Records
---
Amino acid sequence: MITISTNQRQLSIRPTAVAGSFYPQNASQLDALLDNFLSGSDVDIPPPKAIIAPHAGYVYSGQIAANVYRNIEKLKSRITRVVLLGPAHRVYVKGIALPSNTHFATPLGNVSIDADVLIELEHHSYVQFSDAAHEQEHSLEVQLPFLQKVLNDFTLIPLLVGDAEPEQVATILKELWGGDETLIVISSDLSHFLDYETACETDSNTTRLIEKFDYKNIDSKQACGCMPMRGLLKLAKEKNMSIQTLDLRNSGDTAGSKDRVVGYGAYALFNGLILNEDNKAAVFDVINKSIQQGLDNGMGSGNPYNPETASYPEQLQQKYAVFITLKLNGQLRGCIGTTEATMPLINAVAHYAYAAAFSDPRFKPLSIDEYKQVKISLSILTPATPFPFKDEQDLVDQLRQDVDGLIITKNNARATFLPAVWESINNKQQFLNELKRKAGIKTSESPEKAWRYTAEYYS
């Protein structure tokens, strides 16, 4: 530990422990490597409240981590505090260990620690200061260069989680949760030293547990950071959060052999509802203005309403994939949208409301009389992620009824069902068969590829 005396206070800087091994020690090389990882990511999601990222050497897991950190960069003007939790690998910790340092060092500079908050946490019987636990630990350190790269100035609350109950971790997270200024980061790899095929199956199973917030059935064989992860998942379930898997690979996919691999996953967690009541009202105002403009122009002969994006709240300026559905007397009257987030939410709802009313090829343009009676609903989709499957039965077994939206492809055929379709099809095999018919795929044939997503509904 490096101690520097100043006139104001005594600085205690924890030096890097794994710079030069897990990531470059040279600042310029590290900066260039991070740029390469972040620019190489094409994952585009709304800004999350919490993330789970791997902590192996960057050559192995750096790109997987970048796929979640790239989306944190959108929050750089907002995030001023990061709560970082990781597992203790080198020293046994009963409960949660805090550092007494004022800063953690990386080649990119020093990160300031919120010492006052750490002192306040010590009143919990399972929380104690232990510099020995932090001294050589890599699980927290490897996250710091990414955070320094994608955020502006922030203070750090570093917590090493050892032998701790999910309830204990959840209690600490609840105290530190904060608002938009606080980001929660869980550092964890997945399975360790299995053969490639076994690891793929194990990590896929673990990811399903994570996506279902099933923290009770995740242990150290599935994720080395299971202790902090379980605490986050417990609290996230209580808060009715949503979760999205952004990447799932292992060292056999990145930079290692396939005989003994380590698994890596990147996950983003979002607050319960995308739209609060005020934003919901603003969105449906734009939806109705767009349809009304089409009626005024002669049943869709003009252009959609074009809202001034910058005049709306920041949340409505974020890019989302959306579908607009119209129903008349309980029957579908139009449904058009996209599974890709290509435009700000407020612009997307204007565009697809107009299209659902006047451009759905299955229906005539909406009339004024129908508009007076039609029910309008909005689906906001999470990003679609690859849905690997061995065969059709495996795909059906993995489908989450009432939860998953599904995209399937075969050759040039492609189609999707929103999660809302489960309301009329409550059998998983039938759900898939009907989707194949929609795509023009024979029900006797299996899809080649699949993606899944979830959705929030507003009407």
Note: The longest helix spans residues 277-296.
---
Amino acid sequence: MSGNTTTTTTTAHIWRPSSARRLAIDGFLPVPRGTLPSTPAPLSWPAKDPADVLDYEFDIAAALLGSEGDTIASVGVTIAPSGSGDLLATSVAADGTAALFWFAGGQAGTVYTVQVNVITAAGRTLSRALLLPVLSLTAVSAAVTALTTDQGSVITDQNGNPILLGS
């Protein structure tokens, strides 16, 4: 009489960050002689609800063009404002040219500045201030003058603030 043998193997899940919450560093374009460089608009991730715990990505591949093989060696992050109940980076990692973050919490109505400092394996240092608006998305009470879509969703600017009619 032979017995049955059961083998259980734990499978690995390959996690991929959502492309909906991906920011890419602006390219480094030359400025024509005799012109002044303009300050680009701050990069801003889509808004999150205070109850959300979501992954966000910052891709620096454009800054490393021509330096194939250079990757992120370390990532530092500072969030402002920072206090009780404010936005918290629960995890920070790197994958090639992408810095990966998990954010939790935050005060509704606050636009957080996430200061990201990256050092690459070749010794390059990049520092960018990224914006992450936190809005109460579970119970939206839009101002009467807020611009909305045909489905009733409030249209926001790059910082997550509602766009008001007549403003």
Note: The chain is about 0% helix and 35% strand.
---
Amino acid sequence: MVKTVGLPAEIKDGERRVALDPSAVKMLSHSDIVSLVEKGAGIGSGFSDQDYRSVGAQIVDTAEETWSCDLVCKVKEPQQSEWVHFRKGLKLFAYLHLAAAPALTNALVDTGVEAYAFETLTWPKGHPLLAPMSEIAGRAAAIMGAFHLAEGSGTLLGGASGVPPARVVVIGMGVAGTMAARGARGMDAEVTGVDVDLERLYEVHEQKIVTSTLYSNHHNIGDAVANADLVITAALVTGAKAPVLITREQVQSMRPGSVIVDLAIDQGGSVETSKPTSLSHPTYVEAGVIHYCVTNVPGQYPRTSSRALSAAVIPRLLDLARDAKSDRLAGSLNVSQNRVVHPAVAASLQAGYETDIS
């Protein structure tokens, strides 16, 4: 039984979210679990230290004190400077994206951390701890894409009288892709939705989320990308590295000043020319195309993101604190007893880890 939960301040570039808001910490207090919150951890999301004290949290001066707890809950994957806090038996609950992070995986395995990932939890269905941030990332993708398209080719998504609207291609019509398409349509762009699921394509077209649909294959994607002003990728394979759906040659076929927003970058990216960027330096240009590959897109909307994430996480955090083998944590355990135990993560890393698929 977990008796203490640590909430360290996030240190990733531009990250202002916090994993638990005061209302969630209050739920821990009611369950007789002591919360240690690092001083200032919630400031970026609009939550003061006093807000946490008022619901029973202990405010501590250092990250080390929060990492000394039985269970640490945070938003983003531990940065390298935080690995010093890893120890055998520590429970960690966060977005980990280990398929694209072999060095972090090695550190977790070597130190014996019990690592649970938000993004691979699948109970009761779908990805309930990923969905809130996917929704926000998708909405943000349309905004960021429109902004950088203005910087690039100078194209307005909605066009104007006598001028056609911009052409937007969204690859992957899950939560993030659907929100991105809705946002682009809301700005009157012409939006093509791409997916392998024909039923899903029928749904988004019938609901007028997109103006057209396209079955996902190399040829179709190549044609769509070559004529696009803005491409947003949001492909997801649970726990695995993102599939590369757009090749370098296809990027080179795009018009100068076009924009790519790769929302799959946390899992390695879906574009061959993608590489991780940060909120302080969000873009780079390759082959004349602006690439936006920020690995923590929702972090720029910390108040909204923190409240949405906290509401989704706290029920499962309580389950983890009470019974780490609960069915309600299905799929979340990535590293346990010095080995990778999530089969998709292990397969993606191709590092010869022993897997446990029972």
Note: Confidence is low (pLDDT under 50) at residues 351-358.
